[in-house]
Design goal:
The complex is a heterodimer of chains A (148) and B (172).
Chain A: H1 2-14, H2 20-23, H3 28-40, H4 57-71, H5 76-87, H6 102-128, H7 137-146
Chain B: H1 4-22, E1 41-44, E2 50-52, E3 61-66, H2 71-86, E4 91-96, H3 100-110, E5 116-120, H4 124-128, E6 136-140, E7 146-151, H5 156-170
Parallel strand pairs in B: 3-4, 4-5
Antiparallel strand pairs in B: 1-2, 1-5, 3-6, 6-7
Classes of the chains: A mainly alpha (148), B alpha/beta (172).
């Protein structure tokens, strides 16, 4: 029972909208490219799915388009160019590196560097501070005497 | 001063997120703005005669992708009727992935704001125009260049604030 439940829970994860008819007529190399491309292209209707996994009619159209262009001998770059010309960089799960996406690519690096710098400065300051420790002997003796 | 830094960082983030939340992630900016309308060669609903992107040139037009099966299209329909009637806006309807009898019945029931209705049965023009969910409306200037794209239903507000000034600007 538990195993069955587990399988049922995993089903949506492993299931893909791509079916046998979609890849009919493609050779092994073309099929690999097809799977690769459709997994890297975003479905614009259901934005958190790629077009390989989406059941939306638009995703089916785009899969079809990818297949047709692979069969027509277009390169991967030509196919993604075709789609970005129509839908913008948004269709690509991996955005290109250019002026408008600069923060997207460099932001995390900057953030980590800032955090490391702050951590380093903090560590240095706390190491320097408690090196000298002055003991007021008279007061110490007094305190000890009191607790006798 | 020590405690001011985290507060300032937090305030900065709040502002950033507040601005970010104002954006609708469904409105994907079109790369076609400022570019000539993509070519197509389709047929008209009225008489089956050919209609192409070249026929959109010469005056500013609205190109509205719609379908009889689309709910948002019913929402915007009264607005389009009003634009056509009161402002004499030329609206070309692109009937997206629809059946001839369905769209004919739909237009009969709701009335037609369209000067012409182009049949895009396979959605090929839709694909070339970067349409990902009807209704979508493109504003073309007299030279056939796309100057604005409305994603989702047209509203009077969008017309008044965004489109009408553009149409006035491009009118020769």
């Amino acid at each position: 029972m538990r195993v069955l439940l587990l399988i049922l829970m995993l089903l949506p994860v492993i299931a893909s909208a791509t079916n046998a008819a979609d890849i009919a007529g493609l050779n092994d190399e073309q099929e690999a490219r097809y799977r690769n491309l459709t997994s890297e292209l975003r479905c614009l209707v259901c934005q958190n799915q790629n077009i390989a996994d989406s059941d939306a009619p638009l995703a089916a159209d785009l899969r079809n388009q990818v297949k047709r262009q692979i069969l027509a001998g277009e390169s991967n770059a030509q196919i993604t160019d075709y789609l970005t010309a129509r839908y913008g960089d948004f269709v690509l799960y991996k955005p290109p590196f250019k002026a408008i996406t600069l923060m997207l690519w460099l932001g995390p690096v900057l953030l980590v560097m800032t955090a490391l710098g702050a951590a380093f400065a903090f560590a240095r300051r706390s190491r320097k501070a408690p090196t000298t420790f002055v003991v007021d002997e008279e007061r110490l003796r007094k305190l000890l005497d009191e607790n006798k | 001063m020590r405690y001011l830094i985290p507060v300032l960082v937090l305030a900065g983030l709040v502002v950033l997120f507040a601005v970010g939340l104002q954006h609708d992630p469904r409105e994907v900016p079109s790369p076609l703005i400022g570019k000539p309308a993509p070519a197509f060669n389709l047929k008209l609903l009225e008489d089956g005669s050919p209609y192409s992107a070249a026929d959109l040139k010469g005056r500013p037009v609205l190109v509205n992708f719609f379908a009889s099966w689309c709910e948002g299209c019913q929402v915007e329909h009264p607005v389009l009727l009003k634009l056509a009637k009161e402002f004499n806006a030329e609206i070309i309807g692109m009937d997206y992935k629809d059946k001839l009898e369905d769209v004919t019945a739909w237009l009969k029931r709701h009335g037609s704001p369209y000067r012409k209705v182009v049949l895009d049965e396979q959605g090929t023009a839709g694909l070339d125009w970067g349409v990902y969910g009807v209704p979508e409306t493109f504003v073309l200037d007299a030279s056939g260049v796309i100057v604005y794209k409305q994603i989702g239903p047209m509203t009077e507000e969008v017309w008044r604030e965004k489109i009408a000034p553009l149409m006035a600007g491009v009118k020769s």
